[in-house]
Design brief:
alpha+beta; Jelly Rolls; nine-stranded mixed sheet; two-stranded antiparallel sheet
């Protein structure tokens, strides 16, 4: 009887741990704006230590939940992911759609330690995106509904010990349909032609 009770108690704790690792899904606008992501091994369970997490401390329900980003692409879109603040981190990125899951990494960068004489720093995602010292990924996505999640692959260290605590950003930018772009260019050409004829006449 005590073995059965012990098994039940252990199963209850395991289910509680799974429930505590809920996921926060963030809808993403396809306007190129940056969306924050965080990794913080000290704020979450050991099983979730390297995953992107939601650290919106203004909401008790969102604290340290695994974080994913969702969006639906009509034609094409560009997905960007970048490391932020101190250079030296690399992310695993998982992109899931009806077609399956792509497992990618942000670009390889030099491992860094907080004690390094030169440690590149960026205040914004746009600043980090323009600097090759920061790990980044750019992918063109076709039409479909996507969920993007990630985790930390390489961490900045402190005295040789991995910090496993960092930030990054993700953005999605819709790409105009070629027909729409062609119409805009054609209209610009017609306007230019009319302007030239009026100037001659």
């Amino acid at each position: 009887m005590s073995i059965l009770r012990s098994s039940f108690v252990a199963a209850s704790f395991a289910l509680s741990a799974i429930a505590a690792q809920a996921a926060t899904a963030i809808p993403v606008a396809q306007d190129g704006s940056w969306n924050a992501l965080t990794v913080d091994a000290l704020s979450t369970s050991a099983a979730n230590a390297l995953n992107w997490i939601d650290v919106d401390y203004s909401s008790a329900a969102g604290d340290a939940d695994t974080l994913s980003f969702t969006f639906t692409v009509t034609d094409k879109a560009i997905l960007r992911v970048v490391d932020l603040y101190t250079a030296g981190d690399i992310f695993n990125v998982s992109i899931t759609s009806a077609a399956g899951t792509q497992l990618l990494n942000t670009s390889a960068v030099t491992p860094r330690d907080l004690g390094d004489a030169v440690l590149p720093f960026a205040n914004t995602a746009a600043e980090a995106w323009g600097n090759v010292d920061f790990s980044q990924l750019q992918v063109v996505l076709g039409a479909g509904t996507y969920t993007v999640t990630g985790s930390l692959l390489q961490s900045v260290t402190d005295g040789g010990f991995a910090l496993n605590s960092t930030a990054g950003s993700l953005s999605v930018t819709a790409v105009p349909e070629p027909t729409g772009l062609a119409l805009v260019l054609a209209a610009a050409g017609v306007v230019g032609l009319v302007s030239r004829r009026r100037a001659r006449g």
